[in-house]
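Lecture notes, part 5. Sequence design as translation. It can be helpful to think of inverse folding as translation between two languages: the language of shapes and the language of residues. The source text, in structure tokens, appears below.
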């Protein structure tokens, strides 16, 4: 009989969001008259920027005639988008990248998951705890040994350096789920560590656009030497509401070298090129034109407005909870508020309390890893009126 990849049996069930949905459904069935407000989802709610919609309409029209229609897109992205990315996301910050170091894709989830294809299953990977579940699950699927780096209030959510030698390190800043960041000096400690240990950093910068403070790096390549040790993942999903459109990109600098089992040195850029051209057939032309429009002057103004809207939600949530004497983290450079449960109540018990007594849905922190126990993640991606109503309910309780 055909055999499965046994490593799939080592995956914990992706019960988190299913379990939340089930508890919410049960509550609604028993209380059909009560309005439940979700501050739990990690998805955007505001419409796509008009400049982006216009670009989609223009590109769609191009598809309607033989002279201008587009077939297969280049495997690594159209020049117009790659050049806009280099100019807007990197050159302005003093980072020089060449077009063949940028790989446009259908999003950062695929790329952070697929990157393991070019790395040996023997690598030991370090992953922050709590974390975005993709890092852990994709490495379990490949059978890699995982070393968790606890990020807790006591260490200011700065990931503890691993006790044993690791080869690959996942960092996500601004962080999902904690909403916390690393300063330049803190990120430099990790870059220096990776250089010294000859390790690879996989840097997920999906929330880069939400940074408001000066000392927070937008790209890991702002740190000297990072091009030798880091791959960076970016996404238009949270930046410009592309969760349903699907576009992101990955930066693989040519200076990034790894070794074969025999000790031969190989550029990871070459391997990723090979991997993508074999297994990926490019992001849709219409979507790449949409992403290009994010960088237009009008597009920038419009996406900044939407980000400001979400971050105002974050401020409302954070300040109101703090006024009530609750302890929160994040919410300043990221659309997530990491709420410490009062009296050390467990994540799930606090979740049940909010759902049953106030009809508010959060995400239990323990669902993102053991170090998330005793926390709840609240998101700023909701509509303003719902956010305000949820906060009102908490204040009244
Ligand atoms: C939302 C998110 C992404 C983006 O994923 P897409 O596939 O680009 O939509 C990547 N990393 C983290 C940590 C996220 O929360």
């Amino acid at each position: 009989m055909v055999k499965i990849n046994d490593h799939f049996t080592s995956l914990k069930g992706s019960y988190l969001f299913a379990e939340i949905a089930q508890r919410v459904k049960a509550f609604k069935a028993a209380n059909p008259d009560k309005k439940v407000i979700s501050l739990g989802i990690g998805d955007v709610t505001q419409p796509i920027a008009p400049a982006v919609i216009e670009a989609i309409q223009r590109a769609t029209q191009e598809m309607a005639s033989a002279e201008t229609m587009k077939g297969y897109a280049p495997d690594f992205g159209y020049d117009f988008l790659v050049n806009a990315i280099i100019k807007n996301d990197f050159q302005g910050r003093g980072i020089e990248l060449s077009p063949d170091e940028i790989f446009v894709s259908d999003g950062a989830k695929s790329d952070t998951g697929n990157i393991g294809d070019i790395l040996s299953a023997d690598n030991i990977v370090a992953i922050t705890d709590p974390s975005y579940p993709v890092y852990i699950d994709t490495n379990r699927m490949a059978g890699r040994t995982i070393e968790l780096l606890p990020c807790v209030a006591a260490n200011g959510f700065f990931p503890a350096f691993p006790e044993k030698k690791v080869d690959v390190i996942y960092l996500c800043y601004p962080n999902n789920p904690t909403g916390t960041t690393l300063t330049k000096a803190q990120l430099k400690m990790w870059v220096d560590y990776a250089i010294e240990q000859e390790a690879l950093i996989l840097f997920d910068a999906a929330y880069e656009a939400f940074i408001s403070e000066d000392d927070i790096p937008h790209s890991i390549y702002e740190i000297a030497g990072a091009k030798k040790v880091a791959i960076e993942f970016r996404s238009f999903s949270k930046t410009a509401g592309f969760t349903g459109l699907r576009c992101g990109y990955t930066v693989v600098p040519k200076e990034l070298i790894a070794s074969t089992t025999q000790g031969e040195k190989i550029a990871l850029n070459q391997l990723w090129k090979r991997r993508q051209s074999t297994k990926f057939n490019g992001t849709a032309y219409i979507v790449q034109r949409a992403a290009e429009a994010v960088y237009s002057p009008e597009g920038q103004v419009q996406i900044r407005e939407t980000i400001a809207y979400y971050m105002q939600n974050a401020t409302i949530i954070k300040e109101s909870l703090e006024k009530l004497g609750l302890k929160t983290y994040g919410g300043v450079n990221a659309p997530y508020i990491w709420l410490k449960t009062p009296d050390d109540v467990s994540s799930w018990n606090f979740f049940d309390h909010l759902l049953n007594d106030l009809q508010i849905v959060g995400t239990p922190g323990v669902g993102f890893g053991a170090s998330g126990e005793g926390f709840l993640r609240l998101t700023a991606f909701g509509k303003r009126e719902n956010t305000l109503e949820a906060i009102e309910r908490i204040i009244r309780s």
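The translated text above is only one of many valid answers, since several sequences can fold into similar shapes. The CA atoms of residues 36 and 359 lie 5 Å apart.
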